[in-house]
Amino acid sequence: MAFDGVVTRAVVRELHKLVGGRISKIHQPHHSDIVMQVRTQGETVKLLLSANPTYPRIHITTEEFTNPLEAPMFCMLLRKHCEGGVIEQVQQVGMERIIHIDVRTRDELGDTAVRRIIMEIMGKHSNIILIDPATGIILDSAMHVTLAISQYRQVTPGRAYVSPPSQDKRDPLDITRPEFISSLDWNGGRLDKQIVDAYTGISPLLAKEVVHRAKLAGRETLWAAFSQVMDAIKLDTFAPNITETKEKSYFHVVELTHIQAESTTPFPSVQACLQAYYEGKALRDTVKQRAHDLIRFVTGERNKNEKKIEKLEQTLKDAHDADLFRLYGELITANMHQMKRGDKELVTVNWYDEAGGSLTIPLDPLKTPSENLQFYYKRYNKAKKSLQIVSEQIEQAKTEIMYLDGLLVQLSHATLKEAEEIREELVEQGYVRDRKKRGPRKKKETKPELEVYFSTDGTEILVGKNNKQNEYLTNKLASSQDTWLHTKDIPGSHVVIRAREFSDATLLEAANLAAYFSRAKSGSQIPVDYTLIKHVKKPSGAKPGYVIYEQQRTLYVTPDDTLIRQLKTNTKGYA
User: Fold this and answer.
1) Exposed e or buried b for every residue in 381-401, given b needs 16+ CB within 10 A?
2) Contact predicate 82/38, CB 8 Å
3) pLDDT one-digit tens code per residue, 381-427
């Protein structure tokens, strides 16, 4: 992770502008995220503090968040102690990834008090902690750390706050040339790793940059490269940037010359850089967490249906004996005059055997010939009926799997709101219990918000991201002469070109969207069917999002991430 102590220092320097600002609102859109609105210097900004285990961070943001209907307890406590308070200080602890935000407020008696919000950026151990700095007592935290989790320190209300364990590293900003040279073992392996192990606040990414700038020409050049970087940091001279390669993207406040980049994007501030880097990643991670239970549930239902098909196919295999029971019945009828009660078997010529072989039919000696005949005809009728019922059940299970596969594809692309719409659909279909059943009356249903794209020549293309959106797009919004697209025999989104006439390029771009928002996203040469909306119909009683269509044509495309981003960018230009 590149959010090291150097980046933390750059963030804190920019956050100094919040000192003197008043915290007007506090929200907790996710259990690991806190968003504070701060009025300062004639503007209101949003400060995001995130203890997300994958993307912990703190920065000013313009991102929009969806807040829960009922604020969590930690959010309520922050509001009680900090809302309306004035930020007195924003300070980094040494070169650590720990930030203290001191807020001057008033307690229950109206007396002036100070509360400290501590942001600890430590990977999966990240946390947001509220303490009373006068006593050092923890008031609450986003993540509670009990004795079962950590024996070194516990983070729970009422306990004294203990700083994270020291790693006994040196401050790189205070080091001298002799100290630096003597701190490294020049025959002790990788120098970048030694720098990380010796100095606080330096990530492997920054250490590699220092070694790269030294060009391994010797001790003096390494010191020169190290001191050059550290001098810039001391002067708060930062160069926020995002550097991208084919496989990965990186960010830092120091220029990354050691990476062979496809592109490097500079930013005017660390805040803008961090928002650009984290926004999409963190949102996807949050959606995954919110949708985790849904994905697990839908996957479980899918597995149940697969096992059901296995059992039904075995039943179907057993039911194929129906023809044998019918043959037994016909041969018993033909030989009725030779049979009597007490016979254990009937040996007779099999008329249906071209070789003229004989057939031995087991009989129940306690039954009359007529009762044995009825026994085999009953088994024949039962097996025949079973064939029809079991075949129908297998088709139903296959349809169910196709529907559930579609939901899994939709969840993989879903935003928070779209994931909630999918959950509502599962409630409506009877898969899960309605958790809002005892709550207030359901609000009036609103029109789904569709994903809008524009082709390179300006033609509007709409994409349904879940079955609710697909139904609205295909069955209500689109006109009969619009063109409808969908991956052939592959779960995916409904896509509609909102024009009677359009270019071949627009058709290919719409097909790319259909392939991208499908289960075949990672494939190549994906078949995509397209036809007019008037040829698309939903069968009576079909599952949400299921349609049948005719008079289609098929083209083949390979999903292109860059093209999809470009089509979304076009939206801003044409909207």
Assistant:
1) eebeebeeebeebbeebeebb
2) no
3) 887 777 778 888 998 899 899 899 988 888 877 777 788 888 888 88
Q: Are 98 and 116 in contact (CB under 8 A)?
A: no
Instruction: Quickly tell me which residue has 């503007």 as its tokens.
Output: 43
pLDDT digits (tens, 9 = 90+) for 458-482: 999 999 999 999 999 999 999 999 9
Count Cβ neighbours within 10 Å for each residue of 211-230 and write b for 16 or more, e otherwise.
bebbeeeeeeebbebbbebb
- Measure Cα distances from 477 to 449, 471, 473 in Å: 12, 9, 5
Rounded Cα–Cα distance for residues 55 and 58 (Å)? 10
Residue 263 class from Cβ within 10 Å (0-12 exposed, 13-18 middle, 19+ buried)? Answer: exposed
Calculate the dihedral angle through the C-alpha atoms of 503, 504, 507, 513, rounding to the nearest 10 degrees. Answer: -110
Question: DSSP secondary-structure letter at 567?
Answer: H
Residue 306 is encoded by which pair of tokens?
């697969």
pTM (2 decimals)? 0.63
DSSP string, 476-511: IIS-TTSEEEEETTS-B--EEE--SS--HHHHHHHH
The DSSP output letter for 188 is S
Helix axes 270-319, 416-428, angle to 10 degrees: 30
Greatest Cα-to-Cα distance within the chain, rounded to the nearest angstrom: 117
Q: Is the dihedral of CA 266, 267, 269, 270 positive or negative?
A: negative
Q: Is 20 left (phi over 0), alpha (psi -120 to 50) or beta?
A: left
Reference 538, options 528, 530, 549, 529; nearest CA is 549
Q: What are phi and psi of 300, to 5 degrees?
A: -65, -45
